[in-house]
Protein 1
Amino acid sequence: MGITAPRGTKDIFPEDTVKWQYLENLTKKIFSSYNYKEIRTPIFEETALFQRGIGETTDIVEKEMYTFEDKGGRSITLRPEGTASVVRAFLENKIYGQAQPTKYFYIGSMFRYERPQAGRYREFHQLGAEVLGADNPAIDAEIISLGIHLLEELGLKDLELHLNSVGCPKCRKVYREKLMEYFKPYLEDLCSDCQDRYERNPLRILDCKADRDKEFMSTAPKIYEELCEECETHFANVKKHLDLLGIDYILDANLVRGLDYYTKTAFEVIYKGLGAQDTIFGGGRYDGLAQEVGGKDIPGIGFAMGMERILLTIEEQGIELPIDDSIDLFITTIGERAEEEAFKYLAKLRKADLKVEMDYLGRSVKSQMKTADRNNANYSIILGEDELDKGVATIRNMKSGEQVEIKLENLVEEMTKRID
Ligand code: HAM
């Protein structure tokens, strides 16, 4: 076989695009009831944005970015996530000068050079939400509830919300030292990646897939027990607001997330049935990111969901989405004259907003009927010499089998009546 799609990418065909469209439309509907507005940022950015934003010592920046030099000699990176771009756009366009907070959502492809497996791709799609300019813990609870609302509306079950606070640079510094002290005697027992992380990013040891089940992990100092007063009050308030909404959570001290910009609240929603890649969405507060990227002190919080993982969960849980991919009418024709008349009717019907189709391959009546079925037609008519001479046609309801004779000149009107 000749050229194939790059490893870790996927073509999406109509039987699946309808599911993507359903998810996107529902996202737009629910997010707009929380007053989040859509933002679209470039697919590629200056590499420095992600290096500074996501963090030099993260897996994403160290190993997974699609970085290249463009013809003008600039270092460019395909976006591995959306948050850094949203913050860049907010700062560059001085949106902070408007009334705050600013609530955005986005839907689009992201790129990471990871080892492909179920639920993990090199081009994947995220839908995400970000709030800038508000540090109120109620917003943290709102953003979490927004994500859960969407998943529940889709019918997803058995989801777990894991919650943590990763503190601020002030309390994290103290915690970092405590953690290094704790891990020191176990250094030999850690995987080679974590031995490397020990000096550079010891918090990441806590959520290492290879090490996380080792016994000494469960007794490691818990960051939410080491928070400074401000972070502790914030965390208590986030929990209070989640309680107000009746949202259950699991306190998870080992949840540190794979991006360095997080401060205070961090969370993930997990569906265990997905296997190794079981996080449907993750996010948290990033009060230092705007400072890092553009020198402005603006708080932020958000999440992003893997759309492939949502669709995998839908499949895994056997959820039937209410998708209607039927057409309104299929016109079966007999002979050239009928074909030409039908062709004209199609144009009129389509202009009246009806979904209609006919056969273009000169098939037999029997196989045209099969095509009508394959296209999920709700109604069909047969046009032949006889019908044209008499100026009538029989509309057949494909589900009930009911047939009604109508005047051909009234076809658009009769069909519109049936579909409304
Ligand atoms: P993240 O945890 O890196 O966070 O990604 C969020 C979600 O994107 C994951 O939970 C997963 O569902 C999906 N995802 C990530 N990598 C892949 C992949 N290779 N293949 C398929 N799905 C994937 C972020 O990206 C942050 N920007 C989230 C955020 C927004 N934090 C604050 N605001």
Protein 2
Amino acid sequence: MLERHDLCRARVFYAILVLPLTGLLVSADPYAAERERMVREQIESRGIRGAELLRVLRATPRHLFVPIASRPMAYDDHAVPIGYGATISQPYIVALMTELLAPAKKHRVLEIGTGSGYQAAVLSQLAQRVYTIEIVPELAESARGILSDLGYRNVTVRQGDGYKGWPEQAPFDGIMLTAAPPEVPQTLIDQLAKGGRLVAPVGLGWDQELVLIEKDASGRLRRRSAGGVVFVPMRSGGP
Ligand code: SAH
């Protein structure tokens, strides 16, 4: 049995040490509850089941990848503008495209359209290395900064035209486009390893579909559609 003064001491201990510590933990990530809700209500409920992917989505602070004014909507069920005509994709679409790409710890992955850097951060926790190309210099710069500040060390950001891919680092086990070309560029298909997967929104204007291309061990391609999507168009950076 606790003596009265022991109880009193326990309360003081709780008030002085435990409460402030809890407060610190909560204020360290004020969006933890929203992120948990995002994963449950937008992603698990729509059939995304991969345990590793769900763990990564729960661990990645999406709000830090959007402009400060947009943080309150960072976990909402839609894309959010990040400036320069770009958007951070809807959380479910990030999950779906990642699931289709099926990254593994030994994979080297190329992303076209770094934008905020969020998709690259998600991929970096599931693959060995991520190379990502962004055409807008300001976005490439800010994504490089946030990825490095948050400690995602296996991501390399290059400012340039994604239509050219990254020949020095090819072939890639996975290639993901997060801007929509009218058709999948042959250069990128050529940079895909045998046994690799390429995921891309393809089409013009509102008429886009999510495409998965698989290259088998003999180099043959198989293509299937995973439904309608809306992405910003992939710009041509010229010759
Ligand atoms: N994956 C991003 C979403 C990016 S939106 C994220 O997680 O936030 C699409 C991005 O593709 C935009 O930032 C746009 O500037 C970029 N983009 C468009 N055309 C491109 C091209 N040819 N090469 C590289 N990036 C391109």
Protein 3
Amino acid sequence: MKALVVNGPNLNMLGIREPDIYGRRTYDDLVSLCRDAGGQAGFDEVEVVQSNHEGDLIDMIQQAYGRYDGIVINPAAYTHTSVGLLDALKAVSLPAVEVHISEVDAREAFRQVSYVRGACFATVTGEGLEGYAHALRLLAARLSAR
Ligand code: DQA
């Protein structure tokens, strides 16, 4: 069982960007957390990727087809704008979980809109970096139930 964890713009700045919202742990900490939590959830492989560019994120989702069993995705700012990411998730039709570090539904109105949500079977918000562990457990449970 293989999972791809896709991270959008500015998540490489974790630990530096708005620590009152996103905490002090770094992107490297997030990568380690995903690998550890994914292993505990039963994944043989968890690859964690990040890009600041919408088209690169679309390429990463397309390349997951046939290589990964499911996707955990934090599209960051593109959550609220990108039909392209929604369509890419629909195109590969892999089980996907949307994750956000912050409680997006309790923030500005523009953050309460998610395009990718329409292609995800679950959404995890407001659990900090641990939300990725939660999302990986949800994905593992979904894949095991197939
Ligand atoms: C975020 C929330 C988004 O609104 C924001 O643009 C991000 C991070 C989160 O993880 O809480 O970059 O996706």
